[in-house]
Amino acid sequence: MKIKTFVRDCIPGPMYEKLRRLKSLLLLFVLFMKQDRRFSKNAALPGNMGQKQLETQLIFFSHQIEKGLSHSNFRPGFGSRPIYALGVCLKKWNNHGYSKDIFGFKVATSALKAYIDKHDEIGCVLPDFFNSAFDREIMKDIDASDPSFSGTSVISGSENSSSMKTYSQILNSRVSIREFEDCPVSESTIESAISLAMRAPTVCNRQPQAVRVIFNKLIIKQALTIQGGWRGYEFPPALLLVTAHNSSFNNAIERNEPYVDGGIFSMALLGALESYDLGACPLNTMFDIHQDGFTRRLLNISEEEEFIMYIAVGKKKVGVSHPRSFRKAAETVTTVIR
Ligand SMILES: Cc1cc2nc3c(=O)[nH]c(=O)nc-3n(C[C@H](O)[C@H](O)[C@H](O)COP(=O)(O)O)c2cc1C
């Protein structure tokens, strides 16, 4: 007789269930610890600054510059923090002698060039902190950078077409839009987009996703103020919150699946919103303990659900700028195993 069958036959039912639970919790603990080790050894945490982590920081701070450049109410001299941080990171990059032909380096120098060009274009002098952030070598790198790696693009009429789009047209035309027309969004269109996004696959068809559709202006304002990643923009006419239910999952090895299924669903929803010609911007729910608690209380969400992301939604406004968010080439992220 197998040990498992023997134990099950000899131990009373409730006790056996307790043992099974204990085993699951132990496995969960071990897997969390291993995940913790992988993340803490490799993420761009203080003390982990290898080339990849430095590149992560370059991309992160460059995106803040791109966002600032795309604002309709452009604020000359913005961005002392990301510019100072880019100065530090680029100096480290050059001191280590890392290649200047790496994506993050190209994006950073290109974003800084776009910053200079924008100030030139509107006849504003660069702020003092800009000039003091970079040494001569970095200034040369910025000067020699490829402008297509960063900067902003404009929402045009063709991107705004309302005709039915193919999947590749949706992927190519969708961008994060943070400035919308000042008009309400139709509830039925959002419902149709959610219906379409329900076609997203989920593990064993578990469908753990849930969506809150928020139109209440005060709640949108409070939620995005807690979220913190929407500074400097008018609040959107509608805000969606995608969550995933932990109760849809069985055991320790499924612990990350709410995020995988929730992420796939969210991408389907972004595509569906684009297919209905609505502007949208995914917004992180990377909350600390306080943000998590405030948001759960604000929206009456229990611990049973995991936050996946917010999506700001509104009618597209032709002519507004958006960060270019240039993409890596597919071959740089692909490994073929034959
Ligand atoms: C999960 C997730 C969270 C995001 N969080 C924010 C955010 O908090 N604030 C923001 O302005 N943009 C946010 N974005 C938008 C990204 O900056 C944007 O998707 C990225 O730069 C690519 O640009 P694109 O969406 O225009 O293609 C988020 C995107 C994703 C997928």
From TrEMBL:
Pfam families listed in its UniProt record:
Nitroreductase
Nitroreductase domain residues: 173-214
Question: Could you tell me which InterPro entries the record lists for this protein?
Answer: Nitroreductase, Nitroreductase-like, Nitroreductase/BluB
One annotated GO molecular function: oxidoreductase activity
Q: Which PANTHER family match?
A: NAD(P)H NITROREDUCTASE RV3131-RELATED, NADPH NITROREDUCTASE
What's the protein called, per UniProt? Nitroreductase
What organism is recorded for this protein?
Answer: Bifidobacterium longum subsp. longum
